[in-house]
Amino acid sequence: MTADERVVETDDVRPPGERGRTVISDRVVERIVARAAEETAGSGGLDRSVLGVGLPGRRAARTDVRVHGKVVTAKVAVSVAYPLPVRDVARRVREGVRERVEALTGLTVRQVDIDVAALERPTGRTVS
After folding, report:
1. 25-127 adopts what CATH topology?
2. pLDDT of residue 67
3. If 0-12 CB within 10 Å is exposed, 13-18 middle and 19+ buried, where does residue 107 land?
4. Which of 6, 39, 87, 96 registers the highest number of CB atoms within 10 A of its CB?
5. Which pairing describes strands 62-68 and 71-81: parallel, antiparallel, or unpaired?
6. pLDDT along the chain (128 residues), means of 10
7. Domain spans of the chain, in order of start
């Protein structure tokens, strides 16, 4: 019997409700949110710092995600490229996060709060 001739016995296939369950941790959803936020044009991660002293390198967008059953609420802190319209970039980040989380997890995103923590000059320096 070749691979194309294999027969699947329908008696052995269990209904979807009996196959088990999938659990997606809050941390996984946080990473999806951070990645989606950074991939939005005009937004990015934040400078690294300790006690207000800048450090070399960047970190991902800061996120705080809560998953209650199948509902997600998220807070995201990002930087916005100067001089792009902050409101437009925030709207695109919100939409991108919602679409990506719902597509990858099947969860419903109820709310995405955006905190613009910094403006980035074209040279990569932060505007305070």
Report:
1. Alpha-Beta Plaits (3.30.70)
2. 94
3. middle
4. 96
5. antiparallel
6. 52 73 89 93 68 58 92 94 94 96 96 92 61
7. 25-127
